[in-house]
Amino acid sequence: MKANLENLKEAMQECATAHGANFCDWSDEDQLAIDKANVPVMADVRMICEAFFGTFSPIDEDWGYTVVWLGTPFLYEVNEQLLAMALPARMAA
Questions:
Q1: Can you tell me the distance from the alpha carbon of 74 to that of 78, in angstroms, rounded to the nearest whole number?
Q2: Residues 5 and 78 sit within 8 Å (Cβ to Cβ)
Q3: In a 3-state reduction of DSSP, which class is residue 58?
Q4: pTM for the whole structure
Q5: Integer Cα distance of 54 and 61 in angstroms
Q6: Residue 18, Cα to own-chain centre: how many angstroms?
Q7: Which of 3, 51, 59, 66 could hold 79 in an S-S bridge, CB 3.0 to 4.6 Å?
């Protein structure tokens, strides 16, 4: 899968749904977010970011949101193995 903004948004939406949270598309402000900031959400989002960006994970927790800061160059391809660990429902499909 190509590592790009649209696929990242889809992965973040899947993550939010899996955690019973809402996905916030603030890409016009160089941010994507999930309106929950607990350890499981942050761990999954960090792994999603590593799958899309490599070892650098531009995430933050602010006001109860787990925020991904955009601006880091995407990898050419998503690391599918990392993404599958962050989104276990994809493994069953």
A1: 9
A2: no
A3: coil
A4: 0.90
A5: 20
A6: 12
A7: 51
